[in-house]
Amino acid sequence: MRKIARIAPSLLAADFARLGEEMAAIDAHVDWWHLDVMDGHFVPNLAIGIPIIEAIRPHTNKPFDVHMMTTNAHAYLEALRSAGADQVTVHVEAYPDPTAVADRARELELRFGLVLNPPTDVEAVLPYVELCDVVVVMSVAPGFGGQAFIPSVLDKVERLRKWVDSRGLPTDIEIDGGIDGSNVGRARNAGADVFVAGTSVFRAPNPVEAIAELRRAIAEA
């Protein structure tokens, strides 16, 4: 039996001048909030930092899924937890052996996950899936919003789904990048549980209806 699908809008696509308003407008319709933290080194961009996480935390009780696109995520786990993060994901490209950072996350009572970029083979994460509450498959190159979905990554989602299910693991499979109504059904059929949607939600004429469209497409998959 498949898990309930969860929608996690990415704040990277929101209007930062109206961040609180944009969150409030759709908060009742989302399952998680996805927050991208970027350091300008691991990816060529700077984005959401700890002060923003801390500032928006009082305005929602939905889980914060914090995606660390950084080279040294382990150094910020305690600060992220204090700011209000519920789950932190780090890149397997930055942590080829994530055991220590996973252990530290557990000590802080953070959910932990690994992310793999489109060129990275799924083999890189398979030995560590049991450490993870979630594995995130990037369906665009990390660092910038508004990119086109890369269909070939669905093969990795399928492989992860089989790996997780064959071992009876509770690990979620999340897909991040270019998700909209045209591809979310395929991602669901491949085995994804959590769907990060940025541009397709926040840049839609009606963000609430955009989320409803995603849910309909998932239900029909």
How would you describe this structure to a colleague?
- The chain is α/β, with parallel strands linked by helices and 221 residues long.
- It has a single domain, classed as Aldolase class I (TIM Barrel, Alpha-Beta Barrel).
- Helices cover 31% and strands 19% of the residues.
- The chain contains eight helices and eight strands; from the N terminus they run βαβαβαβαββαβαβαα.
- Strands 1-8-7-6-5-4-3-2 form an eight-stranded parallel sheet.
- Strand 7, helix 6 and strand 8 form a beta-alpha-beta unit.
- Helix 2 packs parallel to helix 3, helix 5 runs parallel beside helix 6 and helix 6 packs across helix 8.
- The longest helix is centred in the C-terminal third of the chain and has 14 residues.
- The protein is globular.
- The protein starts with 5 loop residues before the first strand and ends with a helix.
Secondary structure layout plus pairing:
Elements: E1 6-9, H1 19-26, E2 33-38, H2 50-56, E3 64-69, H3 77-83, E4 87-91, H4 99-107, E5 111-116, E6 134-138, H5 154-166, E7 172-176, H6 184-190, E8 194-197, H7 199-202, H8 207-220
Parallel strand pairs: 1-8, 2-3, 3-4, 4-5, 5-6, 6-7, 7-8
Helix pairs in contact: 2-3, 5-6, 6-8
